[in-house]
Amino acid sequence: MEKQTKIIDASIVVKWFVDEENSKKALDIRNDHINGNIKIIVPDLTFIEVLNALKYKGKTEEDLKEANKDLWDIQLQIIKTTSFTLNKAIEIALKHDITLYDALYISLSTIYGCPLITADKKLADLPNVQLI
Average per-residue pLDDT in the chain? Predict the structure, then answer.
């Protein structure tokens, strides 16, 4: 049986490093991936978004470098942004009046036929999006 695949956005990944609302749910998703129960896919901009958010949450250089190492160690499936995925993101961003960053995650969920898991309430009503 093939593993269930999920796209997660930076709002979920940040919760792996910062104790905030729904951090436990986010950590459960991470642990399901680590334990081989699910496969997590992210676009290549995710780590930059996460580390930037952590920087603005007051993390030190050492914290950021450790988080960077942890992100790579988890072995998420990282999808390179292409002209095709960006064109899809442009369509979604304009249709739903959201950022291209957010639309890129949704474009991957459409392409891969799996849900986008997010903590971003403004995305909750979009197709194929699950809010934690």
Answer: 96
pLDDT in tens, 74-122: 999 999 999 999 999 999 999 999 999 999 999 999 999 999 999 999 9
The residue whose two tokens read 């988890």 is 74
Q: What are φ and ψ of residue 6, in 5° steps?
A: -135, 145
CA distances from 121 to 60, 89, 108, 124 (A): 28, 19, 19, 5
Contact 79, 40 (CB under 8 A): no
Cα 66 from Cα 75, distance rounded (Å):
15
d(CA 91, CA 121) in angstroms, rounded, equals: 21
CA distance 9 to 20: 16
Distance of CA 124 to the CA centre of its chain: 14
Stretch 12-22: mean pLDDT, rounded? 97
When pLDDT is averaged across residues 41-51 and rounded to a whole number, the result is 98
Residue 10: half-sphere exposure toward Cβ, Cα within 13 Å: 16
- Angstrom distance (rounded) from CA 131 to CA 124: 6
